[in-house]
Write a structure and sequence with these properties.
The chain is mainly α. The protein has one domain. The protein is 76% helix and 0% strand. The two termini are 17 Å apart.
Amino acid sequence: MSGLRSEWLTSRTSFVLAAVFAVAAVAKIADPPGFAHQVHNYGLVPAGAVNALALVLPWLELLCAALLFFGAWRRTAAGIVAILLLVFIGALGFNLSKKHPIDCSCFSTAATQKSDAERLGDMKLAILRDVGLLLLAGQVLAATRER
């Protein structure tokens, strides 16, 4: 069990999380109106808060990515990433349960030409991916608990 808490594994896990969140953030930062539209499509955020969320969330993701990459405030960054992933899983799961197909908008704000069935399938894969990333965040949290 101590191998799962090794600094070697934790630094690599942090790097993977940093890379994923940095790539996701850059696409959203590059197209705030497109990301705001995608946030609106989820139907979970009040209309008045959509633009603010679309502006703040990508920068929070990028900040967490930078902190994880450089190993600064690693536990705090991993905790925020874990919370974000839980929110993302919840948002996708809620829409999936209602059979409301949406584009994840995780790594791109561009609208895709897919059928509803394809979008629903993509949502399931996105949830699985996010669960995997949540496990990585959990590893970082567990490894940094005693420091």
